[in-house]
Model the fold of this input.
Amino acid sequence: MSGRPMPCDIKELGTLFLFEKLDAEQLGRLCGEGRVELFEPGPVYQEGEPATCFFVLLEGTLVMSRRVGGDDVEINRTSQRGVYAGAMQAYLGAPDEARYKGSLRVTEPSRFFILPAETFSAVLREWFPMAVHLLEGLFFGSQNTQRTIGQRERLLALGSLSAGLTHELNNPAAAAVRATSALRGRVAGMRHKLGMIAAGPYARDALETLVEIQERTAEQVAKATPLSPLEASDREDALGDWFDDHGIAGGWELAPTFVQAGLDIDWLDQVAATVDEGTLEGAVRWLNYTVETELLMNEIEDSTTRVSNLVNAAKQYSQLDRAPYQVADVHELLDSTLMMLAGKIGPGVRIVKDYDRSLPRIPAYPGELNQVWTNLIDNAASAMGGEGTLTVRTALEREQLLVEFRDTGPGVPEEIRGRIFDPFFTTKPVGEGTGLGLDISWRIVVNKHHGHLQVHSEPGDTRFQVFLPLTAQETDSPPATTDDTPQETP
Done:
C-alpha cells in the first residue's frame, strides 16, 4: 500500500534517536534518496511480501502482527517516534530475496520516513563498516550456533534413545536365547523318555490315553491363570505330597512346573488312573517335559513379541514409512514415545495415561509431534529426579485437542516462567541442556501446527499443555529469514 507523499525535513530526521548522530550531509542524503509518506488507517505492508523498504515512524501509531494459523496475532503496538520496522537486515545482502516476516498497519493517520532497502544497505555499509561486520557476525554466528547446537541436541537425544532401545531389546532377546537353549534340552529329554515309554510295558489303550492327556496338558498350559505367591506355595505343597504318596522321587522339583502350568491333583489322578504304579513315574516325567516345553515356547513367544512391539514402536516413533503430513492418532504417537523413552524415564517414575479415546484423529506431522512429546517427557522426568508421577492426559478443550503432561516435580519458578521457551535458555547444569528443546517444541506446535503451547506450574504440579487444531488450516507463505520485527530502542 502506498501513502501520500510528504516533504522530507532534514531537521525532523535529526531529532530521531536513530539519526541524531548523523551530520547534515548524511541527513541530506537520506532525504534525497528516501521519502516521507502519510498513511491513512489500514495496512502499510503485509507479511510475506518482498521486503523492499525500511520504515521509521515520524508520528502516529503502528501495529505489528504475525499470522498464526487463520489469525493475526498482534506483536507490538506503539506511538513512539523513531521506532522502525521492515527491511531491517537488508545489509546482510540480497534484499530482493527478503520478505516481511510480519504485517504492519496504522490505526490513525501516520507519517513514515521510508528508505529503499538497497539504499539502507549501502549507507549502512558505507557509514558504519565495522558495525556491519559485527552485526553480520552476530547474526550469522547466532544462526550457525543454533543450527549446530540443534543438531548436537538431536544427536544426544538419538544416542539416549538408541541406548534405551538397545537395553529394552536386549532383555527379551536374551530371554529368548536362554529359553531356546533350555527348550533344546527338554526336547532331547522328551525324545529319550518317549523311547523308554515305547519300550516299556504299556498297553495300547494306555498309550492312547496318555497321548490324549498330553494334548489336554498342552491346552491347559495355554489357559493357565496366574496364582498369588501364597496360592502357588499351597498348591506346590499339595502336589509334593501327592508325588511322595505315589513313590515319585524328587517330586518337589516337579511341583513348581506343574503349578505354573495350572495343573492340580485332579489332573495327576487322571494320569495315575491311566497307567499302573510301575510306569506312573515315567509317564509323569514324560508329561513334565511336555509342560516345560510348552512353558518355554510361551516364553519365546512373549520375548519375540516384545521385540516385535519395540521395533514397531521405533518405526512408529520415527515415522520411517509414512508421509510427513497425515491424519494421525495422537494416542499412538504418545504410546510409541513413552515406550521409546521407558529406559530413560526409569523405574522410579510412575506413568499414568488418562486418555480420551473418543478424540478424533487430527492432521499433523507425526514425526515432529513425537519430538515435542520427547522434549516434554524428558524435561518432566529430569525435573522429578527419577522419582514421581508423570500423567499424560488427552481431552477436548476450546474446540481443540489437548495433550497435557503433568509431573510432580518442584515446578518452574515464576520469575523464569516467561523465558522457558526462549532459545538457549536452560536451567540444567552446563553440558546437560542446550536450551533448545522447548524452543523447538514451541515452533513445531505454534508455527507448524497452528496450535498453542503453555505451562502452568506450582510445586508438585507442573503442567505443559499442547493445544492442536482438529482440522487442517490453509498455510501461509513460508516466512523468510532476512526480516525482523519492529524495534523501539536505539
In short: The CA atoms of residues 258 and 296 lie 13 Å apart.
